[in-house]
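Protocol step 4 of 6: structure prediction from sequence.
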Amino acid sequence: MEPLLALLAEWWWIGPAAAGAGTVGWIGVRRTRRRALPAGSSTTDRAARSWANRPLSKTAARRLELDAALLDLQTARHAVTRGRAEVKIADAEVMRAQAERAAARVSPEAVTSARARLTAAQREVRAASAEIRARRAAVRAAKAMLPAIRAGNAPLPVARLFAEHDAVLVRWMAYETDPALAIDFPAMSDPASPLLADFLRAQERAQWLRPASTTTRLEPAEFLAYRDAVRALNHAFERAERAARRGRDDRPDVDPTDAWGRVASDWAEQAQRALAWSMENMGRAASRSWNERQAKRTRKNDPNA
């Protein structure tokens, strides 16, 4: 328990979040980051740090998720381009292996191996193409969420990630602070547990990538890194919790389709949330328009109104 107690001492700020105080300061993380910065004192370094410390504009903060989704889509497209090139190379290798086999220069295993590489490359292209469809859905969802964010009916993208991050930590803290849970599910407090160790590593990464505040200047790539770290943290906690509640702590067999299922689930949830916010905004806009028309009719019919 000693490593976990030390970790809890470092994460003293989780308590207020669990009590409903919301997002709190990040003194320890900022101090750690400051120690990790280079000690250069050139004018260029000072200017770069000054630019990085400038707060994010309101427009950029609202568009951050959309800009990140567009970057994600661009990366997926590059992956498809690279994958298609790999398929062409693998196909050429198959033809070369077949020709050399016909000339009895190579064994049949060489042809089989070349075909296996071609099949793997084709499979990667199909997966990358599916990724593009998911990224396009994410772009549409981010665009649909923009009106709600501008109207203040939806949180800023970074604020939403903060809430998701804090929610996972609050769930874990329940196992550390509730004696009954600690007795019933000891694996959730055991630093020797492989799945809990995975969770702690995921938390360390998410903590490192977490911005100091919702107004901290972030590039889309930095937002994506933090978003993916929070998702990995959530999945790691759920795996550890499921294993603890089953009464065992072995690693479950990894389903090769599980990662794609999680991606699809994440995008579906995001799209559903965006649709709900869009419909709510449309209803409010229609209500305002109807009220304005009614007021105009009233003024027209009653000059004294």
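Step 5 (inspection) to follow. Confidence is low (pLDDT under 50) at residues 1-9, 11-51, 249-257.
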